[in-house]
Structure formats: structure tokens, C-alpha cells
Write a structure and sequence with these properties.
The complex is a heterodimer.
Chain A: H1 2-10, H2 14-17, H3 20-32, H4 37-49, H5 61-81, H6 85-106, H7 113-131, H8 133-138, H9 141-160, H10 162-170, H11 175-182, H12 185-196, H13 208-213, H14 215-229, H15 238-251, H16 259-272, H17 276-291, H18 303-322, E1 326-329, E2 349-352, H19 355-372, H20 378-384, H21 387-404, H22 407-421, H23 426-449, H24 452-460, H25 481-495, H26 498-514, H27 518-528, H28 530-533, H29 539-558, H30 562-574, H31 578-582, H32 596-605, H33 615-636, H34 648-659, H35 669-681, H36 685-693, H37 704-727, E3 733-735, H38 736-742, H39 747-759, E4 765-768, E5 773-776, H40 783-812, H41 820-823, H42 828-831, H43 834-841, H44 845-864, H45 869-888, H46 893-900, H47 911-932
Parallel strand pairs in A: 1-2
Antiparallel strand pairs in A: 3-5, 4-5
Helix pairs in contact in A: 5-6, 5-7, 5-12, 6-9, 7-9, 7-10, 14-24, 15-16, 16-17, 17-18, 18-19, 18-21, 19-21, 19-22, 21-22, 22-25, 22-26, 25-26, 26-27, 26-29, 29-30, 29-33, 30-33, 33-35, 33-37, 35-36, 36-37, 38-39, 40-44, 40-45, 40-47, 43-44, 44-45, 46-47
Chain B: E1 2-5, H1 6-18, E2 25-33, E3 36-44, H2 52-71, E4 78-84, H3 93-105, E5 110-114, H4 116-119, E6 126-131, H5 133-141, H6 146-152, E7 160-163, E8 165-168, H7 171-180, H8 188-192, H9 199-254, H10 278-304
Parallel strand pairs in B: 1-3, 1-8, 4-5
Antiparallel strand pairs in B: 2-3, 2-4, 5-6, 6-7
Helix pairs in contact in B: 9-10
The chains are: A mainly alpha, B alpha/beta.
């Protein structure tokens, strides 16, 4: 009591403002500090000396709002007195804004009387002013303008409150009573407070955030207020709810409508909805309004809203499973009163909505949030924990869709699930399962503590439509991620559309690759022919394809399939834009700036951090594969380095590193591989392996030991091959044992490697069984021979492109368009060895090729015959004709594809290019034979 | 027809062989008499390095040299220049440029190409060349597009014209030569010709051929690229035209003036520059040259064996 005394003594008039609660609080605090009473006293002394600002804590937000409002009303009154419409207009705008705030604070649907009274007053004054035409004329132009706009605004505004205004007009006396009835006792107090402090200046606006913080507590209060509005459960009819619902929905998207507020209002409505159908309808709007909470494409939905959204979806599913007769459809515009039909209605009820689309949107939001959140924070991990929540939702939606027979949408939903699972190795998958279980347990614990208030409210106001939790809130995971994938993927293959199927296939490939099933995975790629069609798909699918290929390459490497691994990975590294191709970060390009638009698009494509494929590992694997293939290859073709390049990337790196004057100890992945390459080309397998082993990316492999062992063996083998290629010419014979000890390989291994080299004619030698020696035959080509081969190769390339030009020409327009002069131009006819004339006659495509090759042979003979410029000129004629064909027709874009597909810059798969290359090479071989023969 | 004294050639040949791997050039002096261009003297340029200063010096040297020659009463009309070459790899843009330079001052000028490596084989490897008139016309206007070439009916063969050379000696020199001639049927030079490393010449030729092939494919690629772009541009133009036409139809229907069907400001109507064919012509010439050499060599081998 003593403390109270102090307080009273200390604070003068402010004391009265304080609510009892505050006083008590102070009291307790003071009591606790009883011993330090003196200081406390001093403290409050100083308090009282301070300005009013110090006391701001005491009033509740509600109070403040009312105060502000009444202050504004005062201003309005003053403005009316001096007939100042400009300031009146300002005040009116202000009061409207304040009204909003008041409404939010009091959570009431009921407009405060103060406001209504002000409106009435304003309207009366306005009418008066309008009637007085003389005065109107006298007004200044700005004033008159303000008057007019005021008139319109008021008209519009007052419509909303028409009933209330009329009511207040009818019985202006009973205002006070009205108040008492409508508002609680403390409201009454507020009213008093407002009166008392009318003259005080309106306190500065509090930031909105404060309100949000109080949200949870206010929810309680607000519900009570809402409850008051729909006071009597028996009075609420379908119509009232429907009307309210329409009103709220109409406000959606309008300026000045708080998005969060909208969500709250609708959420409340779901509780009072009369029929399940109506509840469903409202729930759908809640969900779509929740999607709107965050505008714009860049940001993501606030996480709590997202969670609520998921809960709402679950609720929707509950209702749908409970009432099987309700159909969700987004194609038909439903009947106005469709939702009126009650729970006992037996026929089908159609409601607008699209579950799969909602689910996809939720997934997108989840994905976006993961993109935005910094992956190195705790928040990110927290966010990842929400995955099971989404998973269960997707599972339920899918089940429901399957149940109603909408397999197409079900496939879409299944794809979303697949995309959650596919990148997870078994361990991570297990962890997710565990997490889901844990979350379930925690959830049940949480409902007791955290969700207490909610329970309360539901107890206070039992929802009209009670929906039991029918669908499971816990995701079920099959033991094995593979089984889950199989189930989902087979569903998709059966019912999905093209894109869904393709994506599912890619996810499937990826997943197989993760599980070390290289052959299955490879077969899937080859059977699906995705590499041919993926160029025509959207970018995100292309990214997925690239990722699948990367994973496939890693898988091949783990399995020891070096060539395959290199095949998968080399394309990714060809352009030096791996990051971009895998959507794991943006690479800066020196040559052309990106527009902000492009950058934004790119950022939206990025993969969340937890889905990243480790780039260092990928690079290491790629370069090592390249090294193992390229080093023996370089040794084999030492006299013509440029002829057969397996990995351009490695060659380039090697060139760069050779140009360095001083090579320091290796630092990054590249340096390591370069060092290893140098060692390997000298045949020093041990050093090569040691360097490679010192890379720390190997810890990322599950069976690190096995992989390294495999690598060791491979390096030894390739070292042996390199050695033989390089030094075989220096030997006459070489003992097997010697070789085996040199490279620390078993006799059998050495024997098999050497034999293989002999068979493929890489090594010109034979075994001498009794002495276990290989005898080398000196069948090396002379330099002239080698050059001749090289020349033939070059020639065939040239002939190839000539043919291509010719074919394009023939495909384009035939010979008719050719000017006659050119046909017999120059010494064409004279040149006509067999090939030339034949060519002229042949118009058809295949024969055209035949003809042109004939022409080439003619060219050769023509040259041999001596003056022979004729052959040339004919050849050139063909070329320029081809050129003509390009410009006239050029329908056969096929050549464009084959010729330039490989160099196509964006997200190329290069498979087509590769195909054509292979095609070309086979043709080349046959040509070579022809020449040799 | 070029008539030259053996002295002038020998002079040129000795300087060239002295600096053998490096290429040498020099001035040809003589008289233009009727249909015959007489080359009577020559002097080499100092070996040039790529430097402006030295180049200026070279010009001074040339003038000085001419002045000196005039003082000793020798023909000092410039009629062309000579240059050495390696296996006949002389058909370059630079050569053509030099030709054009000379041509500006001297109407009838000639370039004599001497190939030391070939004369090692025992053949007098001399060639007198001039540019054909039609080619020069084209070159001056610098348009080697397919259209123009077709119009002129010019092919790669027609770039250079080879002029027959007639080597003549003064009576005095002839007499001296007869005096010198030894009785034995073979001399050192013939022995030299018996060397077995015949491959070297072939190898070099094939190597050069390979390089040419590379160059030619590059040229071809250029053209492919050009035609691809061209066809793309044409497609764009067509699309644009189509659009414009439908637009015009609509305008016609609405009773408005139709828009013009040409829009020069539109970038898609900007003509793409066609790559010059000069390079590919020269390369083709070069290739034919190599082929001739190989053929000639092979034939001579066959004949001797």
C-alpha cells in the first residue's frame, strides 16, 4: 500500500490515466524493491519531473487510437466553424485512416460511435454548405474544389455506414447507452479517458509491428469481439456469413486493405460458416489470400503464413474427405447458393478451387523461401524442418485426387513429392523420416502449451462445422527411398503430361545415380531419348537434366567407369559455365553484361543450397577422368598433338600450366590434377596418386576407400599405357615381369592391358610366350606417311563440308534456279571426268552425295593429270552453287543443327552435335579406306 | 614476255641463297621495250625487320642505290621486284598489295619469284608474274563478293598471269661460259642431286598443304556462318514483311494510308557484309601450286627411277 502511496504522491495527474493493472504492476515492482525504497522514491520523483512523453507506457493502444480520433474530430469541428473545406478534407482523410487503426486495435467489426457521430456532423454541414449557394460562390477556388471532392468522398464513404448513420440520426440521445451495450466496461472507461484527454495532442503513431507482436494475445480479445458481432449463434444464418464473406472478398486487392487483416477476417469466418461447403469455400479464399500476403515475385511468403496455409489445406482435405459429395472444380462457375446446401445434402456440391494448383503454389513458396534464406543460418535449417509438413500435405492431396479419380493432377502432385525426395541419398531420407516422427511428437506436446489460446477460443466458440482431423497429419515414408520413388514415378509415367513425365524421369535418373545404380540410370537416359528433346524444354527442366547428367557422371566415376564419367561431365565443363548450368550460383561473364531482368530471372532459377552438387568434387572428378583418358592419348599421338583431343578443357589447362614459369605446390583442384597429370605423363603413378589423394573433396564420397583404391588401380594402368606409348619405340623387347614390377601391377593385369593394346593396334608388338616377353615390331609410320594420313583426314573434313553445302543446295532448290551461264561457266565441261557429269545429272539427295564424292575423286585424278586447274574450278563451282542454295532455300535446318548444335551456347546438351560428330567420323573412316585402297 | 640477262638472275640467286631461310626481296631494273620487258640489272634490299624507321631507311637506300647506278650509267628504270620464296608459298595478300603499289607507278611491272629449294633439285625455279587486269579492277574496288566475281567471270586461276621468261646472255658472256665448261659429263652439282633424303621436299610440301587445308576450312566456315546469318536475316525480313502486310490490310480496311513496305531504319534490313573471297582464292592458288610441285617432283622421281 505504501508503494501506492508513493505513486500517487509522485505522479500527479498522469496517475489517473493509468489502468489499475499498471498500478498493481508498479506496486509489485515497488514491493519487491522494498529495501531500496528510497531510491525507488527518488526515481519516481524524477519521473514526475519529466515531460509527458515519459508516461506513454501506461495507455493501451486502444486508448491512444480513440484519443487521436477525437482530436481529429475536434479539428474538424474547428474547420467547420471557419468553413475551411481544405483542412476539413484533410481531417476527413485522417480520420478514415485512424478508423482503420482503431478497428484493428479493437478488433471489432463495429465502427466506433465517435466516428459515426463525426460522419453525421459532417454530412449535415455539407448539406448545409451545398444548400447555401451564395456562400459557395464566395469561396476561394481551392476551397470550392475541396468542397466538391469532399462531397463525393463523403457520399462514397457514408454508404458503408448507412445503417449506423441512420440509427444514430434516429436516436442521437441514446448514444451513450448504445455504447454501454455494445462495448465492454473497460471500453466505457476508454470513452471517459478520451473525453478527459481530448485536448491532448495525438501521440505519435506506433509502428504497426507492435500490433503484430501483440497479435496472439489480441486474437483472444478479437475473437470475443467478433463473437459479439455474431452475438448469438442462433442468429447467424448462411446469408449473413455469405454476405460478410462476399464483402471481405470484394475488399481483396483493393488499396488500403491490409492483407493480413483480410486473412484474419476470413479465418474467423471459417469458424462461423454454416455449412461444410461454405466453410470450404471460405477456406479456399483464405488460402488464396494467404498467397497474396507477400506481393511480388522476388520475395517469399512469410513462414508463419506458409505454415498456416498448409494447415488450412489440411483442413480443406478434412472437409473433403468427410463430405464426399463436395466436388472441387475450377472449370465451372458454381451456382451462387451452392454452398447453402447443408451437411445432410446428398447431391454433389461443386465448389471452385484447384487443389493441385494450390499445392504447387505452396511448394513454390517453400522453394522460394529456401532460395532467399541465407543457407548458413539457423533459420535455413528451421525452414528445412518444414519439409515433412509439406510432404504430408502433398501426400494427402495426392491420395484425395487419386480417390476422386483425378489422376492427372495426382501426377502433378506426385511430381512435387518426387522433387522433394529425388536428391536425397538414403541417409538423408532416413533422417527426414525421423524428423517427421519427431515433429509429430513435438507437435502433440506443443498443442498443450503453445496452442492453448486457440483451444480456448474454440472452446468459447465451437465452430459450427466441426471437422475432425480425418487426414493423417503425419507423413508415411516407405523404408526405402527407392520404393517411394518407384511408386510415385510409375504413377507419373502412367498419367502425367509430357513435362511432368520428363521431369519425373530426370529425377528418377538422378536418384538412381545417387544410389550407385549406374547401368539403370544410364539405360533410363538412353531409353527416354531425353538428351534429344531436352533442348526444347523449359529452362528449369534443362537445369534438372544437367544436374542429372552431373550426378550420373559422379556415379560412373564411383563405379570406375572413367570413359562414361567423362562423357557425362565433359559437356558441362565445355563452356566454363558450370555454375550457371547447374543453377548453383551466377557466373560473371566478362564479355557481356546481363540486364537486371536476366539477372533476376537467373536468380529465380537458383537451386537451394541443400540441393547443391559439390562443385569442387564435380570438377575434381571431371578433371581426373579427363586426365586418365587424355594422358595416354597424348602419348599415343605425340607427333600430332592436335589430332585427337579427348578433353579440350584439360588440354587448355595443361597449356596454361605449362606456360607458367614457376609451378608452386598445388592449391586448388586444378593445380592438383595438373600436378598429377605431369607426374602421370612421366609414368610416375605413385606421385600422381599421392597428389590426387591429397585432395580433400574425397571425404564427400560415401565409400571413400573403395573409390581411392579404384583410382589407384586406374592410375597405374594408365601410367603403364602411357609408358608403353612413349617408350615402345626404344625397346626391341620387354619382359612382362619387368613391366609388372615397374608399375606395381600383377602379371595378369599387365598382360591383359598390353594384350588389349595389341589388339586395338595401339601397340605394334606381339607376345613371345616362352620368354614372357613382348617383341616390338617397328612398323611406325614414317613422317611422310603420317603427314599423308593427316592430309587425307583434312581433305575428308573439307569434302564433308563441301558435301554439306551441296546438300543444302540440293535440298534447297535444285539446279533449276542456277543461272545457265554458271552451269557451263568456266571450263566446267572440260573438267567433266566421270564424277562431274554424273553430278550434274543427279538431283536427288542421296545421289547428290554420291555424285559429289565422285566429283572429289575426279578432282584427285584431275590434279594428277597435270595442268588440272579444271578439277579445281569445278569444285569451286560446286561450292558456290551450294552457296546459292543457302540463300535461296535453306529449308534443311538439319544442317544448322548438326553443324552448330555443339556450339550453341545456352544449356546445350550437345548430344546432337555428338551424334553428328560420330556420324561424321564413321563416314570419315570409310572415306579413308577408300583413299587407302 | 620477259627477257632477262643471266647476270641479273645470278645476282639475285646468290643473295637469296646467302640468306637462305629468310626471304629476300630486291629491285629489278631494266627497260620496257615494246612487248618485251628487259631486265638487265637488280639489287637486293637490305633484310628488313618490322620497324618503321628501318623501312624509311630502306626507301632511302633504294633511292641512293638507283642514283649510284645511274652514275655508272646502268639502266635504272624500275621494272619490278624479285623475291625468294619457300616452296612456292608466295601467294599472299601482301604480294598483291605490293603489286598494286608498283602498278600505280609503273604500268608494266613484273615480279620474279625465285625458289631456292626448288633450284636445289636442279631446276631453274624462276617465275615471272603479273596480276591480271580484271583482278586488279576488282581489287581496286575491293569487292570480292560472289556476285561480282561471277559477273567478271573471274576464278582463282585468273589472279596471276605467268609471263614467259627468256634468259639471254651477251655474246661475251656466252663465250666465257663455253670456255668454262669442263669436259667431264658430270660435275659436283650432279652429285649433289643424288642425295637420298628425297622425303624432305615432299614432307614440307605436304605440311604446307595441310596448313592450307586448315585455312581453307576456316574460310569455308566463315561462309557457312555467313549463309546461316543470311538465311536467318531473310527469315526475319519475311516475317516482318508478313506482319507489315497484314497490318496494311487492316489499315486498308480501316481506310488509312498503307505503311511503306520498306523500312531502311530497321536493323534487319541492313545488308550483312559478305566475306571476301580473296583469301580463299589465294589459298586455292597456293594449294594448286603445292600440288603441282608434288606432282612434278613425283614425276621426276618416276622418270629417274
Amino acid at each position: 500500500m505504501a508503494s501506492k502511496f508513493w505513486n500517487q504522491g509522485g505522479d500527479s495527474e498522469t496517475e489517473e490515466e493509468e489502468s489499475d493493472y499498471e498500478q498493481e504492476d508498479n506496486g509489485i515492482a515497488a514491493a519487491e524493491e522494498d529495501k531500496a525504497g528510497g531510491s525507488r522514491y527518488l526515481h519516481s520523483e524524477s519521473d514526475s519531473d519529466d515531460s509527458d512523453g515519459e508516461k506513454r507506457v501506461v495507455r493501451s493502444a486502444k486508448d491512444k487510437r480513440f484519443e487521436e480520433m477525437s482530436a481529429t474530430v475536434d479539428q474538424m469541428k474547428n474547420a467547420m466553424k471557419i468553413n475551411d473545406w481544405v483542412s476539413l478534407q484533410e481531417s476527413f482523410d485522417k480520420i478514415n485512416k485512424q478508423l482503420e487503426k482503431v478497428m484493428r486495435v479493437t478488433e471489432s467489426e463495429k465502427v466506433p460511435n465517435l466516428y459515426i457521430r463525426a460522419l453525421v456532423m459532417l454530412e449535415d454541414f455539407l448539406n448545409q454548405a451545398m444548400a447555401n449557394k451564395e456562400a459557395k460562390k464566395k469561396m476561394s477556388s481551392s476551397n470550392a474544389k475541396a468542397l466538391n471532392s469532399m462531397k463525393q468522398k463523403l457520399k462514397k464513404n457514408n454508404k458503408q455506414y448507412e445503417d449506423l448513420i441512420n440509427k444514430s440520426r434516429e436516436n442521437p440521445v441514446s448514444e451513450g447507452d448504445d455504447d454501454d451495450e455494445e462495448e465492454e466496461e473497460d471500453d466505457d472507461e476508454f470513452e471517459d479517458d478520451v473525453v478527459q484527454h481530448e485536448k491532448k495532442e495525438p501521440v505519435e503513431d506506433e509502428p504497426k509491428d507492435d500490433e503484430k507482436e501483440d497479435w496472439v494475445q489480441q486474437l483472444n480479445k478479437k475473437d470475443r469481439l467478433m463473437e459479439k458481432q455474431f452475438k448469438d449463434p442462433s442468429q447467424i444464418t448462411w446469408e449473413t456469413v455469405d454476405k460478410k464473406f462476399k464483402e471481405i472478398v470484394a475488399a481483396r486487392g483493393r488499396k488500403g486493405t491490409g492483407r493480413i487483416e483480410l486473412v484474419e477476417q476470413l479465418t474467423f469466418l471459417t469458424r462461423v460458416a454454416k455449412t461444410p461447403a461454405q466453410k470450404l469455400e471460405i477456406l479456399f479464399s483464405v488460402i488464396s489470400v494467404q498467397f497474396d500476403v507477400n506481393p511480388g515475385l522476388s520475395g517469399h511468403m512469410p513462414i508463419n503464413v506458409w505454415k498456416k496455409c498448409v494447415q488450412n489445406m489440411l483442413l480443406v482435405l478434412d472437409i473433403l474427405t468427410q463430405h464426399q459429395n463436395i466436388l472441387v472444380d475450377d472449370t465451372v462457375e458454381p451456382d451462387e447458393n451452392e454452398t447453402q446446401k447443408g451437411a445432410d445434402f446428398k447431391g454433389t456440391i461443386r465448389i471452385w478451387g484447384n487443389l493441385a494448383a494450390f499445392l504447387e503454389r505452396i511448394d513454390v513458396e517453400f522453394f522460394k523461401s529456401l532460395q532467399c534464406i541465407d543457407p548458413h543460418t539457423r533459420e535455413y535449417i528451421e525452414r528445412l524442418r518444414d519439409e515433412p509438413l509439406f510432404f504430408v500435405l502433398a501426400q494427402n492431396v495426392q491420395e484425395y485426387l487419386e480417390q476422386i479419380g483425378d489422376y492427372k493432377s495426382a501426377a502433378k502432385v506426385a511430381l512435387r513429392r518426387v522433387e522433394l525426395v529425388y536428391y536425397k541419398p538414403q541417409e538423408v531420407y532416413d533422417a527426414m523420416g525421423k524428423l517427421a516422427e519427431q515433429a509429430e511428437n513435438e507437435d502433440s506436446g506443443e498443442t498443450e502449451s503453445g496452442e492453448e489460446p486457440k483451444m480456448d477460443t474454440s472452446r468459447a466458440l465451437p465452430a459450427f462445422v466441426v471437422t475432425p482431423e480425418l487426414v493423417s497429419r503425419k507423413p508415411t515414408f516407405p523404408q526405402n527411398s527407392r520404393t517411394l520413388m518407384d511408386i510415385l514415378v510409375s504413377l507419373i509415367y502412367k498419367y502425367g503430361d509430357e513435362r511432368t513425365k520428363a521431369r519425373a524421369m530426370l529425377c528418377d535418373i538422378y536418384h538412381h545415380a545417387i544410389l550407385d545404380e549406374f547401368s539403370t540410370s544410364r539405360d533410363l537416359v538412353l531409353m527416354s531419348h531425353l538428351q534429344d528433346s531436352v533442348q526444347h524444354m523449359d529452362i528449369s527442366t534443362q537445369i534438372l537434366f544437367n544436374r542429372a547428367m552431373a550426378q550420373l557422371g559422379l556415379c560412373a566415376f564411383r563405379a570406375g567407369l572413367i570413359t562414361e564419367g567423362h562423357g557425362c561431365l565433359s559437356e558441362l565443363y565445355l563452356g566454363g559455365r558450370v555454375k550457371e548450368l547447374l543453377a548453383q550460383g551466377v557466373s560473371q561473364s566478362r564479355y557481356h553484361e546481363k540486364t537486371p531482368e536476366q539477372e533476376r530471372l537467373e536468380r529465380r532459377r537458383q537451386m537451394p543450397y541443400h540441393m547443391h552438387i559439390n562443385l569442387e568434387l564435380l570438377e575434381a572428378v571431371h578433371l581426373i577422368c579427363a586426365m586418365l583418358l587424355e594422358v595416354p592419348n597424348m602419348a599415343a599421338n605425340s607427333h600430332d598433338a592436335r589430332r585427337k583431343v579427348i578433353s579440350k578443357t584439360l588440354r587448355r589447362l595443361l597449356e596454361v600450366s605449362e606456360r607458367q614459369t614457376f609451378t608452386g605446390p598445388p592449391e586448388n583442384v586444378r593445380d592438383h590434377v595438373m600436378a598429377a597429370t605431369r607426374a602421370l605423363s612421366k609414368g610416375d603413378f605413385q606421385k600422381a596418386f599421392d597428389v590426387i589423394k591429397s585432395l580433400d573433396v574425397w571425404r564427400l564420397f560415401r565409400d571413400r576407400e573403395n573409390v581411392l583404391e579404384m583410382l589407384r588401380v586406374k592410375i597405374k594402368e594408365e601410367a603403364l599405357r602411357t609408358y608403353l606409348f612413349t617408350y615402345s619405340s626404344s625397346y626391341d623387347s620387354l619382359n612382362l615381369d619387368q613391366l609388372a614390377t615397374m608399375f606395381d601391377l600383377s602379371d595378369a593385369q599387365t598382360h591383359s592391358i598390353v594384350s588389349k593394346m595389341m589388339i586395338t593396334e595401339e601397340l605394334h608388338a606381339s607376345w613371345d610366350q616362352p620368354s614372357r616377353c613382348m617383341i616390338f615390331h617397328d612398323v611406325e609410320h614414317t613422317r611422310l606417311q603420317a603427314l599423308a594420313f593427316q592430309l587425307t583426314e583434312k581433305l575428308s573434313v573439307l569434302a564433308e563440308s563441301n558435301e554439306r553445302a551441296t546438300e543444302a543446295r540440293i535440298g534447297g532448290g535444285g539446279l533449276d534456279t542456277l543461272p545457265p551461264r554458271r552451269r557451263d561457266g568456266q571450263d566446267y565441261a572440260a573438267a567433266a571426268s566421270a564424277g562431274g557429269s554424273k553430278w550434274q545429272d543427279n538431283l536427288s539427295y542421296s545421289q547428290g552425295r554420291l555424285g559429289s564424292s565422285g566429283g572429289r575423286s575426279g578432282y584427285n585424278t584431275g590434279r594428277a593429270m597435270g595442268p588440272g586447274q579444271t578439277g579445281y574450278s569445278r569444285d569451286r563451282g560446286g561450292q558456290s552453287r551450294g552457296a546459292g542454295g543457302y540463300s535461296t532455300g535453306y529449308q534443311s535446318t538439319r544442317y544448322q543443327d548438326t553443324a552448330y548444335g555443339g556450339t550453341g551456347r545456352s544449356y546445350q546438351t550437345g548430344s546432337i552435335a555428338r551424334g553428328s560428330h560420330m556420324d561424321g567420323s564413321t563416314r570419315m573412316v570409310s572415306l579413308n579406306r577408300g583413299v587407302r585402297a | 614476255m620477259v627477257a632477262a640477262t643471266a647476270r641479273s638472275f645470278l645476282q639475285a640467286a646468290t643473295t637469296e641463297e646467302e640468306f637462305s631461310p629468310a626471304l629476300v626481296t630486291g629491285q629489278l631494273l631494266g627497260l620496257d621495250v615494246g612487248s618485251v620487258l628487259e631486265v638487265t640489272n637488280c639489287f637486293p634490299f637490305p633484310i628488313r625487320e618490322e620497324d618503321e624507321e628501318i623501312e624509311a631507311e630502306g626507301a632511302n637506300y633504294q633511292l641512293e642505290m638507283m642514283r649510284c647506278l645511274r652514275e655508272v650509267n646502268v639502266d635504272n628504270n624500275t621494272v619490278g621486284w624479285y623475291q625468294s620464296t619457300l616452296l612456292g608459298s608466295f601467294q599472299t595478300v601482301e604480294l598483291i598489295e605490293t603489286f598494286m603499289n608498283y602498278q600505280e607507278n609503273i604500268r608494266r611491272c613484273v615480279c620474279i619469284i625465285y625458289d631456292p629449294s626448288k633450284s636445289n633439285q636442279g631446276v631453274l625455279a624462276l617465275k615471272a608474274l603479273k596480276l591480271s587486269d580484271s583482278f586488279m579492277d576488282l581489287y581496286r574496288n575491293n569487292n570480292f563478293t560472289g556476285e561480282k566475281l561471277r559477273e567478271r567471270n573471274l576464278s582463282w586461276v585468273d589472279i596471276f598471269e605467268e609471263i614467259p621468261i627468256k634468259v639471254s646472255n651477251s655474246a661475251l658472256v656466252s663465250a666465257f661460259m663455253t670456255e668454262l665448261e669442263s669436259d667431264s659429263p658430270v660435275n659436283q652439282c650432279d652429285y649433289d642431286r643424288l642425295q637420298l633424303s628425297t622425303n624432305l621436299f615432299m614432307e614440307r610440301n605436304v605440311e604446307f598443304l595441310i596448313d592450307c587445308m586448315d585455312d581453307l576450312s576456316m574460310e569455308q566456315q566463315k561462309f557457312q556462318f555467313y549463309y546461316r546469318n543470311l538465311s536467318r536475316q531473310q527469315a526475319q525480313q519475311q516475317a516482318w514483311l508478313q506482319k507489315r502486310r497484314t497490318e496494311n490490310m487492316a489499315r486498308k480496311a480501316a481506310g488509312e494510308e498503307p505503311l511503306p513496305e520498306e523500312d531502311p531504319s530497321n536493323p534487319i534490313f541492313k545488308p550483312l557484309p559478305e566475306p571476301s573471297r580473296l583469301d580463299s582464292f589465294l589459298i586455292t592458288n597456293q594449294i594448286s601450286n603445292y600440288c603441282n610441285q608434288i606432282n612434278g617432283y613425283a614425276l621426276s622421281l618416276k622418270a629417274t627411277s
